[in-house]
Amino acid sequence: MITLRFNIRPYLAEYMSIRYSWPERSSVKIPPSTDLYYLMIDLLSRRPPTAGRDIGNIEFQLPHRSAGKRTETFNHLSSRNQRKIERAIYVMHWTEFHMFCEYQMHVRGESLIMSVLLFKSKYNIESLSQDAYIKNYQRWREKQQVCRRIYKNNPHFY
């Protein structure tokens, strides 16, 4: 088992700790069936001699691979690769949030505020306010409508 520790935004750490939780809950165990697992494995590199101990607000555990990079040697993420992983988690979080709100609002008939509260309680997110989620959803929805208008009014699209 490879253990990686680094800093990500607090609300993403809360999201990941619930999304991929397991009984010990001291770390996040990424299953090998996810894209995030393969991204992390691909970004692993040899630990430089000057690298210190890993510190951060979240700890990931990756199962050993039967083939590919040796985990004894390739067990380090550079700061650039950590940012790539944080960006992938960021996209995963907001994508799930938008789809969750769409389902709650259009299928179940909930309001946007109630959808946000349900999402925050589902993942126990306290570091990001309700208003931030509402604004993000409204910006995303406006962007979707602008894209639809562009495609609808474009005669060369069809």
Explain how this protein is built.
The chain is mainly alpha-helical. Helix content is 52%, strand content 11%. The protein is built from five helices and five strands; from the N terminus they run E-H-E-H-E-E-E-H-H-H. A three-stranded mixed beta sheet has the order 1-4-2. Helix 2 packs antiparallel against helix 3. It is globular, with a radius of gyration of 19 Å. The termini are far apart. The relative contact order is 0.15. The model has no long low-confidence stretch (mean pLDDT 86).
How are the secondary structure elements laid out?
Blueprint lengths: L1 E5 L3 H10 L8 E2 L5 H9 L1 E2 L11 E5 L11 E3 L2 H28 L5 H12 L6 H23 L6
Parallel strand pairs: 2-4
Antiparallel strand pairs: 1-4, 3-5
Helix pairs in contact: 2-3, 3-4
